[in-house]
Amino acid sequence: MKFESFKAGRWQARYQYRSFEPVPVNHAWTWEDSQINALLEQATRALGELNAFSLIVPDIDLFIQMHVVKEAQSSSKIEGTQTGIDEALMPEAQIRPEKRDDWREVRNYIEAVNTAVAELNNLPLSNRLLKQTHAILMQGVRGEHKLPGEFRASQNWIGGSSLADAAFIPPHHEGVSALMGDLELFWHNDTIVVPHLIRVAISHYQFETVHPFLDGNGRIGRLLIPLYLVSHGLLAKPSLYLSDFFERNRASYYDALTRVRTSNDLIHWIRFFLNGVAQTATKGRDVFRQVLALRTEVEQAAMGMGKRAALAREALNLLYRRPVIEAGDLTQALEVTTPTANALIKILIDKGILVETTGQQRGRVYAFDRYLDLFVK
Q: Residue 313, exposed/middle/buried by CB under 10 A (0-12, 13-18, 19+)?
């Protein structure tokens, strides 16, 4: 199928509405647009540079967790969830009651990402994996009664208050299984020559168009991107997440997806996606460089802490994963007494590594703010 002659699907009349029935995607794809070739080269190069850090940075898993937290916060923000990245790292008791529903959705997303990536060691990228991930995403939050872990058995819609005024109505539920089966075959079809970044761009569009779950489609569809890249070996670690790019360019993101459905303009979507990969991978590479520079600085400071140097390095390893902590977190993670944890926190504050964020005498929270700031930009 040529991008230039692509027909996205058809509108099917239903009772009092029309659903969009997309065409299958599991076949060869070609294009004449030279800009796609240039963008594909740029995105592939940037992705390779990002992946190099995953291979050469010692203890890379210490830092990957912050990428996951950032992704959870950004992806949930697109859906209207208002939780800051610092709040996502706090315990629930520190979150104001009116914000806890949003906080739980972000925390579910973090668990869903970590579980899905780990499951890639046991399962290929598949609809089964996506369903398991969706079940985790929806547990105990808004949407928990909308068939978590199962494809929808009824019609859903995007925008508007009902089918009557919806902005977009995905395919009828009876066709969802077949369309998602076709998409899964596309992920693993070795008989066609289609670059992986093109495949994942088409896959994200198709997933969001099919909208296979009653809720949570945006978040699962965006998570599909790093899962695809890791499962096919383009990334050694899940270090690329496009939700921040999509959130910062939200209107353009939705417009690009819509233009495929309404104008068959797949080329515009592919360009937008590849540009997002290039920008995000380059930003991720730069963050890794800044993390390494900061790590060198703070660990040199830890070496000057005398008899507490070894304990300080253990504390830093915790802070790379969780840069917002309470004294009890150090007590538990380092298996030390409360006075020892408090003494260590005081030293880290004196060295400019930690700052106290609450201004309270009780329930104090401390942040590795210089590290946290690298992921907030």
A: middle
CATH of the domain at 355: 1.10.10.10
Residues 6+ apart with CB under 8 A from 259: 265, 268, 269
Query: Would 41 be classed as within a structural domain?
Result: yes
Residues 6+ apart with CB under 8 A from 47: 197, 229, 234, 235, 240, 277, 281
Cα distances from 286 to residues 132, 289, 297, in angstroms, run: 33, 5, 17
Query: Tens of pLDDT along the chain (377 residues)?
Result: 999 999 999 999 999 999 999 999 999 999 999 999 999 999 999 999 999 988 888 788 888 888 888 888 998 888 888 888 888 888 888 888 888 888 898 899 999 999 999 999 999 999 999 999 999 999 988 777 889 999 999 999 999 999 999 999 999 999 999 999 999 999 999 999 999 999 999 999 999 999 999 999 999 999 999 999 999 999 999 999 999 999 999 999 999 999 999 999 999 999 999 999 999 999 999 999 999 999 999 999 999 888 889 999 999 999 999 999 999 999 999 999 999 999 999 999 999 999 998 887 787 899 999 999 998 87
Structure pTM? Answer: 0.93
- The residue range of the domain holding 247 is 3-286
Number of domains in the chain: 2
Q: 296 lies in a domain? A: no
Half-sphere exposure (Cβ direction) of 8: Cα atoms closer than 13 Å: 22
